[in-house]
Amino acid sequence: MTVKAKTQRTAKRKFFTLVTSLGLMAASMQPALAAIEIDETDFGPSYETMVVDTVVGKPLQLVNAVAGTAAYLVSLPFSLIGGNADQAQQKLFVEPWDAMGRCLGCTVAEDNYYKTQAVDDNVVRIVVDQPSEILINTNDYVVVTP
What we know:
Blueprint: H1 3-34, H2 47-82, H3 85-100, H4 108-116, E1 123-129, E2 132-137, E3 142-145
Antiparallel strand pairs: 1-2, 2-3
Helix pairs in contact: 2-3
């Protein structure tokens, strides 16, 4: 075996070791990056986001909802012919009006968090192991959320 072939083999082995090491490091970092805890003291809309949402966001959402409703009504005959009236209704009518119901200055994640914290007298909440919980409705339906 020549020196040139041995050098090429050593370079390939070093390259393979480097790529493998970087891949294992990236794979091991994924769970750490995925685990994000909510800091409830600094969670929620700030004064600035509420003002901007009041002055800019909600009026634009209203315009979007009205325009979406108009587009849905105009496209309804074509949607019925195409068989996707339910999808058109969801995207053009329901989703824009649901966005209007989001709390003032909240992101989607913050709004979902606040809505899950609302008290429901028909639900008994048992926290098993964070973040898992068991919800038992008084009408005997049992819902387990992992």
